[in-house]
Specification:
The complex is a heterodimer of chains A (241) and B (234).
Chain A lengths: L22 E2 L3 H25 L35 H29 L2 H4 L6 H11 L14 H25 L5 H6 L3 H29 L2 H8 L1 E2 L7
Antiparallel strand pairs in A: 1-2
Helix pairs in contact in A: 1-2, 5-7
Chain B lengths: L6 H8 L2 H7 L6 H26 L33 E5 L5 E3 L1 H6 L3 E8 L5 E10 H8 L7 E6 L5 E5 H4 L5 E6 L2 E2 L9 E3 L12 E7 L19
Parallel strand pairs in B: 1-10
Antiparallel strand pairs in B: 1-2, 3-4, 4-7, 5-6, 5-10, 7-8, 7-9
Classes of the chains: A mainly alpha (241), B alpha+beta (234).
Chain lengths: 241, 234
């Protein structure tokens, strides 16, 4: 897939001779759902923090569970700048409204992945394990050269597969909190109502941590991918296949 | 067009948007968003009613009572009846036999008791024991007409009210509670009589009851009218 006459990857910043023509890396549906998801997820997190602030503990009232939780009300309040809705009812209205476009955007993306076959380039499978080890060695400087890769390297695949799973867990734990009687089986899968609240909360911090790493990696590893997710066109260092 | 994505140009372009995005925090959506919220949450309410009708689940009983159950009312001071003996519960509206129930008449009706997890909209929960008259028994007494689709609960707590769908009111665990723990219901939890059900969020459970009215039109409620979800079914 790489050009045989270009054995080494060019340094970033030096121009490629001759310049590669831009290729279509992300279809319209991918770019649309990516940015819609960014907006909806931000709204879900901010309104969720507004809701959480009403009772910033986990566990039956009066006996708080001893779980890792930096934002327990006894330690640190959720800063108002991170909240959406103004008060509990306002947060609930945002959260229960944005939940549907958040889910529908995710479903649209999942259907695209399945139907187009694009999932093969994105979902981490057992065959990606050796490649993941090589990528890890590269990042740890145990091997000098960047391993050959397709559209996404195996570590990216694991990250993107994980984030899809995280979206599913955040949605299911949300339903488990909203309907602990009618969907009691789901709620008990999360360990009951209070632990479902906790797992829902853990997905929030995981989403935020993922997003920070995701954005840093865009600028550090492949700045050309920013243009690709905005316009679809890609002229970066990695193959598209 | 430049080969490399221009980071600085991109940051310059999004910079003016950032303060706007941050200023949006705490935003309730403004007048433009309220009809959108009302429509989507109205859809959520309908979905919740249908899920409840489909599943028909009851809350599981708990063996152990645990957690604190705080006192809550909207009056400045705890609503306490000056003369509990003269208190009455009026049950009327779209019914064949409107009835006024005295404390003695209520005590004579069949009671059930259970320990269940209570869920507050704020996110806390607590397991407590309740005793009371199934609402369906009171409904049988007054015989709602076919037009009765909702039930409106009124209180002497400074105008606190709730509107319910009739299916939730007729749920086997929905009771008019006069006992909390192993004691008679005290003023801190809504004495002499309060609505209780483990299938609804706490703010739907009217305390200090005075009147129950069956209606054809959907009734509002104290918190529901201020933006809290109307159905609030668990």
């Amino acid at each position: 897939m790489t050009t045989p006459s270009a054995p080494a990857l060019p340094d970033m910043g030096t121009s490629v001779e001759p310049p590669l023509p831009p290729v279509l890396r992300h279809r319209g549906i991918v770019r649309l759902t990516h940015w819609l998801n960014a907006v909806f997820l931000t709204g879900m997190i901010a309104s969720g923090l507004q809701i959480y602030a009403a009772y910033a503990h986990f566990g039956i009232r009066g006996s708080v569970l001893n779980l890792p939780n930096p934002f327990d009300a006894s330690r640190m309040a959720i800063p108002p700048e991170m909240r959406l809705g103004g008060w509990l009812a306002g947060g609930l209205r945002w959260h229960f409204t944005l939940a549907w476009p958040f889910v529908l955007t995710g479903l649209a993306y999942a259907i695209f992945l399945a139907v187009s076959g694009e999932w093969r380039k994105l979902i981490f499978r057992p065959r990606d394990v050796p490649g993941a080890i090589q990528m890890t060695r590269y990042y740890l400087r145990l091997r000098p050269d960047h391993p050959e890769q397709g559209k996404h390297n195996p570590l990216q695949k694991s990250a993107y597969s994980f984030i899809i799973l995280l979206a599913v867990i955040s949605t299911l734990s949300g339903f488990a909190i909203a309907k602990p009687i009618q969907l009691s089986l789901l709620t008990s899968l999360f360990g009951g109502y209070q632990l479902a609240r906790y797992w829902h909360f853990v997905t929030v911090w995981t989403f935020i941590a993922f997003t920070i790493v995701h954005v840093v990696m865009v600028f550090v590893a492949d700045p050309a991918s920013m243009r690709a997710i905005l316009t679809g066109r890609y002229r970066g260092r990695f193959p598209n296949g | 067009m430049a080969d490399q994505f221009d980071r600085r140009a991109f940051l310059r372009r999004i910079a003016p948007v950032l303060p706007v995005a941050l200023g949006a925090c705490g935003w309730d959506g403004g007048p433009a968003m309220q009809p959108v919220f009302d429509r989507v949450i109205g859809f959520n309410n309908t979905l919740g009613e249908q899920l409840q009708a489909l599943r028909g689940a009851t809350a599981p009983p708990h063996q152990v009572v645990r957690g604190a159950m705080p006192s809550y009312f909207i009056s400045d001071t705890m609503p306490v009846l000056a003369d509990p003996a003269s208190w009455r519960l009026e049950v009327g509206g779209l019914v064949r036999t409107p009835t006024t129930l005295t404390p003695a008449m209520l005590e004579a009706l069949p009671h059930i008791a259970y320990s269940v997890e209570h869920h507050c909209v704020e996110g806390w929960s607590s397991v407590a024991a309740w005793r009371g008259i199934p609402f369906s028994i009171v409904a049988d007494l007054v015989q709602p007409t076919r037009d009765a689709r909702y039930v409106f609960f009124e209180s002497f707590d400074n105008g606190y009210t709730n509107g319910w769908d009739i299916a939730s009111a007729m749920h086997p665990q929905t009771i008019l509670a006069d006992g909390f723990g192993d004691k008679p219901l005290a003023p801190d939890h809504g004495a002499p009589l309060r609505l209780y059900s483990p299938i609804k969020l706490g703010y739907k459970l009217t305390k200090y009851l005075t009147r129950v009215t069956f209606t054809a039109e959907k009734p509002g409620g104290y918190w529901e009218d201020q933006g809290y979800p109307w159905f609030a079914g668990l």
